[in-house]
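User: Could you go from structure to sequence for me? I need the amino acid at each position, not a summary. Structure tokens:
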């Protein structure tokens, strides 16, 4: 291999054409010769856009979503890809609530698994849990009836027979992943409305 070898990167050819230097000086010049390139504005913009939307928006939660829904990462990514399509979301009995239902893995086969999109300021009414519920907040926050605030990254666990309601923060929507075994609203009207939406 010669100093003029066209297969060498240009910066290496330039360095080899200079006066020979001892090893210590060559090492001192490595940072200069191997300085990182600043990303182009277009590439950085595309990267920022990609991580601002699902599925990459929720990439830090892939493992926890997999545990919640008992699904492998490729299925998690597929669900999050679906969430980008407005037609995948179903209206729920409460104004300001949309659900994207999914089929959980073997350990979650008897549970209701879904993504929930709560509008800012939504007041979710009192309800009783027919079985265990786990909710992982992906973004936004809500305040439980007890006064506890749950934020992005928090898991809210509810036991069978427990009752509560909550209010979503007014400044942004709340996106949550849930796995539960049924709820029953305290309000008779909402019980009937919920049954209509299940059909």
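Assistant: Here is the amino acid at each position, in order:
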């Amino acid at each position: 291999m010669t100093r003029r070898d066209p297969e060498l990167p240009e910066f290496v050819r330039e360095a080899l054409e200079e006066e020979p230097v001892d090893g210590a000086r060559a090492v001192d010049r490595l940072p200069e010769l191997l300085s990182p390139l600043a990303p182009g504005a277009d590439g950085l913009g595309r990267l920022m856009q990609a991580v601002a939307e699902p599925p990459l928006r929720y990439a830090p939660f892939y493992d926890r979503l997999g545990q919640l829904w008992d699904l492998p990462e490729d299925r998690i990514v597929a669900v999050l890809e679906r969430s980008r399509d407005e037609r995948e979301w179903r209206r729920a009995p409460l104004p300001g609530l949309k659900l994207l239902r999914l089929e959980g893995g073997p350990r979650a086969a008897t549970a209701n698994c879904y993504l929930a999109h709560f509008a800012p300021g939504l007041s979710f009414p009192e309800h009783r849990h027919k079985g265990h519920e786990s909710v992982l907040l992906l973004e936004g926050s809500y305040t439980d009836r007890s006064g506890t605030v749950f934020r992005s990254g928090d898991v809210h666990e509810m036991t069978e027979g427990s009752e509560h309601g909550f209010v979503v923060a007014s400044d942004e929507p709340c996106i949550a992943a849930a796995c539960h075994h049924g709820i029953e609203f305290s309000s008779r009207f909402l019980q009937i409305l919920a049954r209509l939406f299940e059909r």
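One structural detail worth keeping in mind: The chain has six helices and eleven strands.
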